[in-house]
Amino acid sequence: MSLIDANNSLDIFYNLIKDKKCNKYSNNLKVGVDLGTANIVLSVVDEFNNPVAGASYPASVVKDGLVVDYIGAVEIVRKLKAEVEDILGTQITYGSTAIPPGTLSGNVKAIGNVLEAADIEVVSIVDEPTAAAAILEIQDGAVVDVGGGTTGVSILKDRKVLYTADEPTGGTHMSLVLAGNYKISFEEAEELKKNAEKEKENFLLVRPVVEKMAHIVKRHLQGYPVEKIYVVGGACSFSEFEEVFQKVIGIETIKPKRPLLVTPLGIAASCIK
User: Fold this and answer.
1) What's the whole-model pTM score?
2) CA angle, corner 176, sides to 163 and 236, nearest 5?
3) How do residues 35-57 score in pLDDT, each as one tens digit?
4) Which listed residue, of 68, 178, 189, 195, carries a Cα 20 to 30 Å from 202's Cα?
């Protein structure tokens, strides 16, 4: 799959979620559940990783790989499961999920327990940047997953993961900067961050945060012959985001379309029973 193909799949997946529809499918479905910091996304692909259906729900039940509202997380996953089952006309029984790199084993178990409590058998748990690499079909390079609270890095060679890391600094830090500048609540800043009309003005304010992320990534890439960086995650949606990374790190930086949906779709692609 080329980047053009991946972008096409991401557009299809976005529209399936928006329109609450599904594509034709055989019985060999693969399911992923992304317990993100800002959204929980349930994604379904076929055996060839083509998008079939999906659903999303805004939530703050997970922080940096730690489940902070277990009951709330289970209820949302159950809701999304029922919604997608209704769209598909079939039952979802198993699926995969993902974690930030370096998540402690107890937190990994808690995330798996959320799916099990929602009657989804967990068949695999992968780290988030590796899941993103699966849908982008990256053979060599680095995948940077910018989440709500952390920036995760995976370095790949011949499709094998050589190195992973995860450090604080993500979309939450951008929102804190905006909240402080405009003297508004964190929740209002989260909404302002998504305002397309204010993008240029907002990016000037959060640019130092993006530069810090880039320096984090640059440090982790030292000693590895990385020629391309792929950035994913909702926090990298700013149009100038990849330009800052490229300037700071000095390595070609690529941002797929719909960066928020790359990891959720990759989690489903990684679902091997």
Assistant:
1) 0.89
2) 45
3) 987 889 999 999 999 999 999 99
4) 68
Give yes or no for a contact between 133 and 270, defined as CB atoms under 8 angstroms apart: no
Low-confidence ranges of the chain (pLDDT < 50): none
- Rounded (5°) CA angle 48-50-54: 130
Domains of the chain: 3-133+261-269 (3.30.420.40), 138-259 (3.30.420.40)
Alpha helices in the chain (DSSP H): 3-19, 70-88, 105-117, 128-136, 171-182, 186-193, 199-221, 241-249, 259-269
Determine the 3-state secondary structure of 256 from DSSP: coil
Could you say which DSSP state residue 3 is in?
A: H
User: So what's the pLDDT on residue 47?
Assistant: 93
For residues 200 and 239, the answer to whether their CB atoms sit within 8 Å is: no
